[in-house]
Specification:
The chain is of the alpha+beta class. It has one domain: Ribosomal Protein S5, domain 2, CATH 3.30.230.10. It contains three helices and four strands; from the N terminus they run H-E-E-E-H-E-H. Strands 1-2-4-3 form a four-stranded mixed sheet, sandwiched between helices. Helix 2 packs across helix 3. The longest helix has 18 residues. The termini are close together. The model has no long low-confidence stretch (mean pLDDT 92).
Length: 120
Amino acid sequence: MYELKKEKKICKNKEYQLVYRRGKSVVNRYAVLYVLPRSPKHKTRIGFVTGKKIGCAVERNRCRRLMKEVYRLHQFEIGDGYDLVLIGRSRLKHLSYGEAEKNILHLLRLAKVWRKKRIQ
């Protein structure tokens, strides 16, 4: 029920590049969110990115796991029809899950992709 299936992920480099070029960005100290609106008929898809500035592979993977877990638990509260790319910044590696959740949800609200009610 709360799994992140392949059809809900951005997988190809070309798709990431399209979101970077045409999407709007929302930024805070811990992450950057790119949003590209699509047709409301399409499911929302997301990609997770961490750059090498964050640190070694262990730290980058931890940041990606934090971002994925926040999205996985709140995916039904996000509206349909968007391509999202969530980029972790170096300060994200120092946060606990609760703090990371608060900051990522704040980005989703700023980008206006947050839906008030949980629909399953």
